[in-house]
Design a protein that fits this description.
alpha+beta, globular, single chain, 41% helix
């Protein structure tokens, strides 16, 4: 079941938030494939260009990585540096 989208706010941002939440809650663990543009378009009832914009945003944020011909995958999050810089 797809979440209800608020059509008064940018849809791509809402889709990116849903994917981010799924990564955070472990629905999409590190290294797992995230839905493709076509799959997101179908799930949310949105245009392919909107789905692509959401995935591009997540890639820019470092949450996912794209592999040509294979799809997009949850990226490993770098360890946060310690406060003392060690």
């Amino acid at each position: 079941m797809s979440p209800e989208l608020d059509r008064t706010r940018p849809v791509w941002r809402q889709v990116a938030t849903v994917i981010t939440d799924r990564i955070a809650d472990g629905s999409y663990p590190v290294g797992s494939r995230v839905p493709s543009v076509v799959e997101l378009s179908t799930e949310f009832g949105i245009a392919a260009s909107t789905a692509q914009k959401a995935l591009t945003h997540l890639k820019t944020e470092g949450l996912i990585r794209a592999e040509v011909g294979l799809g997009s995958f949850v990226a490993e999050r770098p360890e946060k540096p310690s406060e003392d810089g060690a």
